[in-house]
C-alpha cells in the first residue's frame, strides 16, 4: 500500500467512525478499553468538555477516541511487522524515516506522525494556566517576530494557508531560531524540516468542522484561548538546549 492509498483508507475509517454512533460516544463517560499492543491512547489530562466553548466536547471526544484511536490501532499492527517501532523513541523514528523498513515506511509516517502530533496537541491545550508566553520563550518570540501578536498572526496564516489537511507549527529550527511552518497530512516538523515544535495546531477539518464548519480562521482564533503556555515554554527550553 502506498502513502496515498493508506491515507485514503485512514480517512475512510475515520469518516465511517464519525458518522456512526455519535450519541453513543457522547454517552461514554470514560475512554474505551486500551488495546493489548504496545501503543496506548494517551489520556488528555482534562475532560472532553474542558476546552468549551473554544473546542466543543463532541469534537474532542471523536477526535481523541476515534481519530487518534485509529492511529494507535494501526501502530499496533505495524509493530508486529517491525519491533523497533515500539522500542525506539518516537522522535528518533520521525526524525529519520530512512531507518524504517521501506514496506511500512508510509504507514509509519502517517500513523506514528499522527500519534506524535496528537499526543503533542492534547498536552499543549489546557482549560487553565497562563494565557501568554513568558520568560525565555517570550523573549525569543519578541526577538524573532517582533512581538507575540505578530507570531500568532503568522501562525494563523500558516494554518489557513495549508491547503487540505495538515498542521501549523511554531518551531525551533536547526539554527536555533523560532519560525512558523506548516506540514501536510500527519507529517511532523522533525521529518523534512529537522525542526523541534514549540506549538502545533491541527487544521484537519475533523479538528473543527462540527463547531466551525468551513471557518478555519475562526477555529484558529479561538484555539489560542486553549494554549498551555507553560507546556510551550517547556518545549522551547528542550528544543533550545
Ligand atoms: Mn487530528
Layout of SSEs?
Layout: H1 3-19, H2 22-27, H3 57-79, H4 84-87, H5 90-95, H6 102-123, H7 135-145, H8 148-161, E1 166-172, E2 178-184, H9 189-193, E3 196-202, H10 209-212, H11 216-223, H12 229-240
Bound molecules: manganese (III) ion.
Manganese (III) ion (MN3) binds next to α3.
In words, what does this structure look like?
The protein is built from 12 helices and 3 strands; from the N terminus they run ααααααααββαβααα. By secondary structure, it is mainly alpha-helical. The chain has 2 domains: 3-124, Fe,Mn superoxide dismutase (SOD) domain (Helix Hairpins, Orthogonal Bundle), CATH 1.10.287; 135-240, 3-Layer(bab) Sandwich (minor pseudopilin epsh fold). The protein has a 3-stranded antiparallel sheet with strand order 2-1-3, sandwiched between helices. The longest helix is centred in the first third of the chain and has 23 residues, at 57-79. The termini are far apart. Mean pLDDT is 90; it is low at 1-29. Bound molecules: manganese (III) ion. Manganese (III) ion (MN3) binds next to helix 3.
Amino acid at each position: 500500500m502506498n502513502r496515498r492509498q493508506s491515507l485514503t483508507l485512514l480517512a475512510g475509517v475515520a469518516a465511517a467512525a464519525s458518522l456512526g454512533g455519535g450519541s453513543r460516544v457522547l454517552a461514554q463517560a470514560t475512554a474505551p478499553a486500551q488495546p493489548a499492543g504496545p501503543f496506548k491512547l494517551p489520556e488528555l489530562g482534562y475532560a472532553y468538555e474542558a476546552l468549551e466553548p473554544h473546542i466543543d466536547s463532541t469534537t474532542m471526544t471523536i477526535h481523541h477516541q476515534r481519530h487518534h484511536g485509529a492511529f494507535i490501532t494501526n501502530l499496533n499492527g505495524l509493530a508486529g511487522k517491525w519491533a523497533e517501532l515500539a522500542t525506539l523513541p518516537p522522535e528518533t523514528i520521525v526524525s529519520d524515516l530512512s531507518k524504517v523498513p521501506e514496506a511500512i515506511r508510509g504507514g509509519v509516517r502517517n500513523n506514528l506522525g499522527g500519534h506524535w502530533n496528537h499526543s503533542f496537541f492534547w498536552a499543549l491545550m489546557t482549560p487553565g494556566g497562563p494565557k501568554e508566553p513568558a520568560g525565555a520563550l517570550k523573549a525569543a518570540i519578541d526577538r524573532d517576530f517582533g512581538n507575540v501578536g505578530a507570531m500568532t498572526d503568522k501562525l494563523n496564516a500558516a494554518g489557513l494557508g495549508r491547503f487540505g489537511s495538515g498542521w501549523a507549527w511554531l518551531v525551533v529550527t536547526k539554527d536555533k531560531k523560532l519560525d512558523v511552518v506548516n506540514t501536510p497530512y500527519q507529517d511532523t516538523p522533525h521529518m523534512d524540516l529537522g525542526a523541534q515544535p514549540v506549538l502545533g495546531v491541527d487544521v484537519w477539518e475533523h479538528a473543527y468542522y462540527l463547531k466551525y464548519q468551513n471557518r478555519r480562521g475562526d477555529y484558529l482564533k479561538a484555539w489560542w484561548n486553549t494554549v498551555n503556555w507553560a507546556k510551550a515554554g517547556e518545549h522551547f527550553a528542550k528544543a533550545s538546549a
